[in-house]
Amino acid sequence: MSRMDEPERLLLVDDNPTNLQVLYQTLNGRGYKLLIAKNGEDALRIALKAQPNLILLDIMMPGVDGFEVCRRLKTDPETRDAAVIFLSALDEAKDKVKGLELGAVDFVSKPFNPEEVIARVETHLKIQRLERSLSRRNEELEAANRKMKADLEAAARVQRALLPSELPSAPGCEFAWNYRPCEELGGDGLNIFRIDDRHIGMYVLDVCGHGVPSALLAVTVSRRLLPSTDQSSLVREPAEGGRGYRITPPAEVARRLNRLFPMDFEARLYFTLLYAVLDTQTRALRFVSAGIPGPVLLPEGRPAQEREAPGVPIGLLEDSQYEDAVIPLAPGDRIYFHSDGLVEEHDAQREEYGRERLKRVIEAYREAPLGESIEACIADVVAWRGDDRLKDDVSVIAMEARCS
Q1: At what angle do helices 211-224 and 114-161 cross, to 10 degrees?
Q2: 142 part of a folded domain
Q3: Domain CATH for 71
Q4: Cβ atoms of residues 96 and 59 within 8 Å
Q5: Domain range for 215
Q6: If you write DSSP's letter for every residue of 354-400 in order, what string do you get?
Q7: First-to-last CA distance in the chain?
Q8: What would the pLDDT profile of 375-384 be if each residue is shown by its tens digit?
Q9: Residue 362 in domain
Q10: Total structural domains in the chain?
Q11: pTM for the complete prediction?
Q12: CB 3.0 to 4.6 Å from 270: which of 30, 260, 263, 345, for a disulfide?
């Protein structure tokens, strides 16, 4: 039998044998294990060994009195959790205050009323049971929270592993990116990767919502967008005859994703996507936008401009249609992909940041290194919001065309 399954232990302490007999007869047969001590020293020794749940403790005893016994009990980690009810003929308020200050939970006046003794004992044992139950639940919650935190950290590592670890090298092209989740697990995803010797793919995706469900969907979609040697990748497929690969047009990638990932209506999970394929030889950038802001183009020597290609978010409608748009890039041009979290932040007056402000920052940093220009965009949004906690995940990819 475990300690928790044993009968609750009560220690009865009084130097008067008659009082002890009355207490024993009052509480005997009620399912408790009753222990007896005739003085303070015996009470301390028995309490340390038996660790009773509750102690009925006389105050006026020769030698070590009840107040001193209570003080020692409450300073010893082995006995401090026992509930102490003082037994006393003393009726002075100062004596009761002193007892409560030492850690007692209640007083029973002598001569004893059996019904009062039973009621007070059962009340404080019930409180003790509730406290133990609450403590167990708190320990279970702490263990569950630790496990959840470990799981979230592991999931975040998986998510980070799908971010670009090494940017593709291509003559006349420079890439940069930044990813900032608003929580430990984000619903955004981005990547820049080589599809074949000539083509580079890149995407920004944004799953509706935050937390584990959104992160899992973002990871799943990200894996489907990576090139592979089998048929699991959506971005390329073996060419006829088995020699080389056929590059899947961005609009076709969006259509296939729309069929593969219909919206989860219970969790209301769907996602937006901006996917592009760059031909490194011609510098033609072919892209599709599915519910996400189109790219911002910064032509050499000219103002920034939005290049929209409206499309329905992935998963919302079964028969959604998507179309490619093409941007020919010239040396000196820059182009920025971003999730809507970058421009939908609000300031203290609830005014939205918006794309016009974003374009101004992009223009202001046209001479800065590409990665620094992205950091400046995010920093400006943070300053606009007024604190460092963004309400949504932020993903940004930038590319600059240069002379080969």
Answers
A1: 20
A2: no
A3: 3.40.50.2300
A4: no
A5: 162-401
A6: HHHHHHHHHHHTTTS-HHHHHHHHHHHHHHHHTSS--SS-EEEEEEE
A7: 81
A8: 999 999 999 9
A9: yes
A10: 2
A11: 0.68
A12: 263
Q: What pLDDT is attached to residue 2?
A: 46
Amino acid residing at 89: A
56: phi then psi, degrees, rounded to nearest 5: -95, 110
Please name the helix (run of DSSP H) or strand (run of DSSP E) that holds residue 104, with its range, or none: none
Which tens digits make up the pLDDT trace of 258-300?
999 988 767 678 899 999 999 999 999 999 999 998 999 999 9
Kindly report the CATH number assigned to the domain that includes residue 188.
3.60.40.10
Vertex 192: Cα angle to 190 and 198 (nearest 5): 150
From the number of C-beta atoms within 10 Å of its C-beta (0-12, 13-18, 19+), residue 83 rates as: buried
> Same structural domain for residues 37 and 78?
yes
Q: Cis bond leading into 250, ω under 30°? A: no
Q: Is 289 helix (H, G, I), strand (E, B) or coil?
A: strand
User: Are 178 and 105 contained in the same domain?
Assistant: no
Please indicate, yes or no, whether residues 129 and 273 belong to a single structural domain of this protein: no
Judge whether 70 and 103 are in contact, CB under 8 Å.
yes
